[in-house]
Design goal:
With 81 residues, this protein is mainly beta. It is built from one helix and five strands; from the N terminus they run βββββα. It has a three-stranded antiparallel sheet. A two-stranded antiparallel ribbon has the order 1-2. Strand 4 and strand 5 (50-55) form a beta hairpin.
């Protein structure tokens, strides 16, 4: 299980990602969608699985980040999910 915490003052996880059966080795954030405010967490585990997790903007805000449309965002040049 992978747990997501707020950057400050949080003792309990904001969200839990359950599915991997071994240690998560790597992760990366991906942004996409028509407005550039859709987020996805990609994880790779020792169980040899790659997972793609959709992350709602309210969860992003709970961890202390505000989704902002990137400058020069062109939805035709991004991968939507």
């Amino acid at each position: 299980m992978l747990e997501m915490y707020a950057s400050e003052g949080c003792r309990e996880p904001i969200h839990e990602f359950e599915c991997h059966t071994d240690v998560v080795k790597e992760f990366v954030w991906r942004r996409g969608g028509q407005d550039g405010n859709d987020f996805q967490l990609i994880t790779w585990s020792k169980d040899r699985t790659l997972r793609f997790w959709g992350v709602d903007s309210d969860i992003i805000q709970q961890v202390g980040s505000t989704p902002v449309k990137p400058r020069n965002f062109d939805p035709d040049r991004t991968i939507s999910f």
